[in-house]
Specification:
With 506 residues, this protein is α+β, with helices and mostly antiparallel strands. Helix content is 30%, strand content 25%. The strands form three sheets. Strands 4, 5, 6, 7, 12, 13, 14, 15, 16 and 17 form a ten-stranded mixed beta sheet that branches. Helix 1 crosses helix 7 and helix 8 crosses helix 9. It starts with a strand and ends with a helix.
Length: 506
């Protein structure tokens, strides 16, 4: 119900205001809207523009977390893999990981024990179980040094991380939530039994509860929006990745151990590339854009070269990306030892106003975090009518987990004028909604201006109309990954097209 301020201009009230449009904020918005609460979510930039688009892009249990005895986190994560796969089979799919046995590091019995727990902790039903590989007679051994004779192969899942954020937000919007990108929350004050909040340029809203899901900026928000100047809750740890040209032909991924007790992944990426990461480095200043250092590039190259027969060199790198993980500061001495679990905590320094902060978390457990948050919300606002059970398909994911290739074939026949790679990419990103982009097109010209690397104006229009894209970077590095292949002049042309369209709308 709208209230009024001193100038009698209408001020809209929401049950919940969420600050931050990464995976945690997006997941909470979806769950809260699903349970009947009025929700407003604001992000100062593009959705998923921080940590949530800079992950290793895995839905995984976290095999190495077992060594730190985080059994609840691992079990919770393992249980979510198949649930999320069923909800979004276009952007999530199974991936087999090859773990070569390194005689100088963890013994084989310890790896077997860890993988036995991994297979049985999480109620695995669809994903295949662990098995032992003879690398001398398996294609997974081809790119590796001959000294690696044995490996263990297990299952996890791949995810298009930034698209998972968008699909959560679209689901929340479909259920009535207000979703605002590029809208900073400037100030919040609790008075008269509710929060009075200034957002964007001059807009004002009120809310019963505020959730601070700003990720790496969670402490910054506490200081700048709420005036809590001594906020220090998260440890900022930079994770960096390198992308090189395809290192191997098969579709398995690798997990490599290192003598510093860390691991890295080498994963098939965007058809023609291999993704290698990640690092753990302190990022003391969140105001600086996270960027990979030469030392991190060297570290990843050297670590991968311990296993690959053909060394990985810094000059092989074609693209890099870095993100900052906001790990809850539990006092761990090493960045890799800090917990990856999430922490939900009400802020006591605000008085009677309910402000709930989220520290840490990982993509795999975003729904579990949202469930925990709803317990906090229901304790304050009471329960509302739940609209769905929460496990329905995300937009475009309304097909069976084994139906991807069938869907690609169906659209390849219907839109035979398109290159098969383009059709496959569209189905991989949008699932059944690829048909909304292609519509009644009978030839390429029906899709509007061609912008390079299989990107047509029709897809850009869809992303602007339905997925909040406003800048070229939103399209080519978050909604898609075409920016890895596109030339700078192609991206510049896309930027001009998008700005022209925005100008026409406004």
């Amino acid at each position: 119900m709208a209230s009024t301020d001193k100038t009698d201009s209408p001020v809209k009230h929401h049950d919940i205001l969420i600050i931050g449009g990464g995976i945690n904020g997006a997941g909470i918005a979806r769950e809260a809207a699903m349970r009947g609460y009025s929700v407003c979510l604001c992000d100062a930039g593009d959705f998923g523009g921080g940590t949530s688009s800079a992950s290793t892009k895995l839905i995984h249990g976290g095999l190495r977390y077992l060594e730190h005895y985080e059994f609840r986190l691992v079990r919770e994560s393992l249980m979510e893999r198949e649930v999320l796969w069923k909800m979004a089979p276009h952007i999530i799919w199974p991936l087999r990981f090859v773990l070569p046995h390194h005689r100088g590091l963890r013994p084989a019995w310890l790896l077997r024990l860890g993988l036995f727990l991994y297979d049985h902790l999480g109620g695995r039903k669809l994903l295949p179980a662990t098995k032992t590989l003879d690398l001398a007679h398996n294609e997974a051994g081809n790119p590796l040094k001959p000294q690696f004779k044995k490996a263990f192969e297990y299952s996890d899942c791949w995810v298009e991380d930034s698209r998972l954020v968008i699909l959560n937000l679209r689901s929340a919007r479909d259920m009535g939530a207000e979703i605002k990108s590029r809208t900073p929350v400037n100030r919040a004050e609790f008075k008269g039994g509710k929060w009075h909040v200034d957002i964007g340029g001059s807009e004002k809203i009120t809310a019963s509860v505020i959730i601070n899901a700003a990720g790496p900026w969670v402490d910054t928000v506490l200081r700048s929006v709420f005036g809590i100047n001594n906020a220090h809750n998260v440890r900022l740890v930079r994770g960096s990745h390198i992308v090189i040209k395809k290192k191997f032909e098969h579709d398995q991924a690798y997990i490599f151990q290192n003598s510093d007790e860390r691991i890295i992944f080498a994963i098939p990426y965007e058809t023609d590339f291999t993704l290698i990461g990640t690092t753990d480095a302190e990022q003391p200043d969140i105001s600086e854009k996270p960027e990979i250092t030469p030392e991190e590039i060297s570290y990843l190259c050297e670590m991968a070269s311990e296993y690959f027969e053909e060394p990985v060199k810094p000059e092989d790198v074609v693209w890099t990306y870095s993100g900052v993980r906001p790990l809850y500061d539990d006092g761990a001495s090493k960045a890799q030892e800090a917990t990856r679990d999430y922490v939900i905590r009400s802020e006591e320094a605000i008085g009677e106003g309910r402000l709930i902060n989220i520290f840490g978390g990982k993509i795999t457990t975003f729904r579990k975090l949202a469930f925990s948050m709803m317990q906090e919300i229901e304790a304050v606002l009471g329960k509302r009518t739940q609209r769905t059970d929460g496990s329905q398909h995300f937009p475009g994911g309304d097909f069976k987990v084994d139906g991807f290739e069938k869907l690609v074939d169906q659209y390849s026949r219907k839109y035979s004028f398109l290159d098969h790679k383009v059709t496959r990419r569209l189905v991989r990103l949008y699932g059944t909604e690829a048909e909304k982009i292609l519509g009644t097109a009978n030839k390429k010209n029906d899709l509007g201006e061609y912008l390079g690397e299989g990107l047509y104006e029709a897809e850009v229009n869809f992303l602007m109309d339905h997925e909040w894209a406003q800048e070229a970077e939103d399209v080519v590095f978050r909604r898609t990954k075409l920016g890895i292949r596109m030339e700078p002049d192609e991206i510049a042309r896309l930027q001009k097209l998008m700005h022209r369209r925005l100008a026409m709308v406004t």
